[in-house]
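Researcher: Sequence recovery benchmark, item below. Answer with residues only.
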């Protein structure tokens, strides 16, 4: 399989963007999403590998470092109904076996219920949850201890070696980040109710708007543009201290870039959106 048959797209996500139903904020980022969606439509993938994190919704009591979902649903959230993902189970299982053979003790996830970390990029980048078959690949980005960035790169490379064996056009998505610090993740608790989660988010929203770090975001995007592995590892391992607890999600970008062959990823857009409490970025492979 050639690199031309692999398209990598990494994008921030934010529940705030979905609550902004009038599209008042983030116009530059939304325009970037439209450009990326056009690239994906032209590429017309056979299926998608989606590296995503979890906001302690799917994984609370048992938290896998890395996983592969062989079947999955999407939680009802942000005004959207529950959905079912079209997961090519045979390919997903082959990927799981390959990763185990590559000495990654991944979790095989069946009928797992995923949140906006997976749903939002599918809707924004492809237009619909079911537009293309998709294999969700969860990476723990929320509940410590987290995987080291170097190990995440190795994981992505292992996924890439599996994709090398396939005669297929594959869209590889990494989603999360950039700098942000959601109040619900700053609270290191796995068993809070949805009502308590909403209260924590509401009370912490004003402070969260001040925690975007454009300088760190730019440094990360610059490192992607040259695929500087050492710098990406350094920035990611120090992400929480420098750019907020939500910045840990850039592990999914590292995995996606590595799975795509470690080629540079160029920023299509970057816009810090205080109302969404996030430095919103989007980068694609050349």
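Model:
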């Amino acid at each position: 399989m050639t690199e031309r048959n692999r398209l990598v797209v990494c994008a921030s996500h934010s529940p705030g963007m979905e609550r902004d139903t009038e599209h008042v904020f983030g116009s530059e980022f939304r325009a970037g999403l439209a450009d990326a969606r056009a690239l994906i439509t032209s590429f017309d993938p056979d299926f998608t590998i989606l590296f995503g994190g979890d906001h302690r919704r799917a994984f609370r009591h048992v938290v896998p470092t890395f996983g592969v979902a062989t079947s999955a649903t999407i939680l009802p959230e942000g005004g959207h109904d529950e959905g079912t993902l079209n997961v090519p189970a045979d390919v997903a299982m082959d990927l799981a076996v390959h990763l185990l053979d590559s000495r990654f003790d991944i979790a095989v996830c069946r009928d797992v219920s995923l949140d906006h970390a997976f749903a939002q990029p599918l809707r924004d980048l492809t237009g619909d949850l079911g537009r293309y078959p998709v294999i969700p690949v969860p990476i723990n980005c929320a509940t410590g201890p987290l995987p080291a960035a170097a190990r995440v790169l190795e994981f992505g490379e292992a996924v890439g070696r599996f994709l090398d064996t396939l005669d297929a056009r594959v869209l590889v998505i990494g989603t999360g980040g950039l700098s942000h610090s959601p109040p619900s993740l700053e609270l290191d608790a796995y068993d809070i109710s949805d009502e308590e989660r909403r209260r924590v988010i509401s009370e912490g929203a004003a402070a969260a708007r001040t925690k975007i770090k454009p300088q760190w975001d730019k440094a990360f995007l610059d490192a992607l543009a040259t695929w500087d592995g050492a710098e990406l590892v350094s920035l990611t391992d120090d992400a929480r201290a420098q750019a907020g607890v939500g910045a840990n999600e850039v592990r999914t970008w590292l995995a996606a870039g590595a799975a795509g062959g470690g080629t540079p990823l160029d920023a299509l857009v970057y816009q810090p959106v205080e109302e969404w409490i996030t430095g919103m970025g989007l980068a694609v492979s050349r």
